[in-house]
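Study this:
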Amino acid sequence: MMLNWVRTIVFSIVFYGLSVPIVLTAPISALFGQRPLLRHVHVWADMLYWSARLILGIDMRIEGALPVGPVLYASKHQSMYETVALVRVLHEPAIVMKRELSDIPVWGWSARRYGMIVVDRSASAKALRAMMREAKETLAGGRSVLIFPEGSRMPVGETPELKSGLAGLYRMLGLPIVPIALDTGKVWPLHGPQRPGVVTVRLGEPIPPGLPREEVEARVHAAINALENQS
């Protein structure tokens, strides 16, 4: 346990120390367009992956094949690790985020330039039109979309109902859903130190567009929780 705390402290110093200049310089990359910003973000994701591997002893195993063409990825959410690591694995998808994050000065502007799709809890007509516009811009660029349909990080073993945003995006985008199960919580818990291990990221079979809401939610829920209690 003590060694895990030492690793966690060293990782925090290295990762967050390097993240500060990377995040602060992201707006500069954003000034030159989306493509330079995507490369900038990929550098950050690479830095997380290698820092976690070399300092924490955390490696990642990918199961399943990446689909061809844009899809809607729906991922289990257990830790901060996958919020950055999946950017690397899935080749910089647009990410659905809460409105509050987009309001952060400078960072919020950069996030929108990256291609974030903002979900506004007010669900007003104006907010929905903005969300649809951002989603269509993402599809026009040939990119996939990533959503964490549980809404927030969950401890290992918890399988809450999915938020309504998944069904709305599924219907609006008309894309197949690729569910992602993962077990990052076993090495990166919500509380306490990180610990060495190999995490699994499992890409499920694509779920075709056009299915009833109840069916698609049930299939996604089962698929993203496929690794629960197996570690």
Summary: Residues 58-224 form one domain. Residues 45 and 85 are 6 Å apart (CA to CA).
